[in-house]
């Protein structure tokens, strides 16, 4: 029996069981064989789809909540699940409205494909518009979270277009129909570079959409698994199917204050915090990031873990993670601009209170 026929048999068996469970078919088993045979023939004659392994050119969207692990550890599990389900419900409605297919949910991440099973000429523009709409929806979600005593959520979204393999993956114990390939891996690497509220698109996606989108300058980064460095573009706006802007630029506006604050930090290799510690000095801080002065140059787009000492409030905000946005040499020192990627609610509030208090004294 071919795999195609075996799939039809399995579906026929499930339909038979459902009919009995719903009371639409007698529980007696004497006619089961005849019913199964009839269902099997109908499925095969109607071209019941055989899930072959195929290669498709699609656009991939991968979203991830920044700092979700800290949120999960800081709030009751039941409240976190409810908040996550509200998020999935809102994002799911947007995704389906733009013709996307949710491939899988991975913790707080959503993997979406445009171009399979149905391919459209508008797949790229739909994927881009979907990403923008998802970021725009976060404001209402966070308003709801606030009324329920839950924290704001910030999402990073990556978009990439390329060739993938679609097929059944797994064994008799568990399997799923999903996508695999280098372009899927690249999308994951791009997502790792996303900051809070940011949408990053690949060179391939940019080439197919540059006539109707607004982006920042290319940011050349090294990504694991890629032979050469790749250019990433931050998406600011799209004109298709209608004009929309990504709201993140407004969301990041914050007072900035001059400080002289010691910083101890460690570099990250992937998700592993390296043991060696370095000293620096924060000379400028805002709600969402800071500028630190170091003896050595930090690598652009790299991530660090640090501890900040907020002396005025006798508060120490630990386990703060940040990504290096820019770095330049000033005299014999280096000034490194960075934005927070993961920070606990307590630490975020401490930094905001510190900035607000300092603004009030200047």
UniProtKB/TrEMBL annotation:
Q: Where is the Guanylate cyclase domain?
A: 59-191
Record GO terms (molecular function): adenylate cyclase activity; cyclic-di-GMP binding
Q: Which PROSITE patterns match?
A: GUANYLATE_CYCLASE_2
Give a GO biological-process term.
intracellular signal transduction
What single Pfam family name could you report for this chain, choosing any that match? Answer: Guanylate_cyc
* Domain of life from the UniProt record: Bacteria
What name has this protein been given in UniProt? Adenylate cyclase
Q: Which organism is it from?
A: SAR86 cluster bacterium
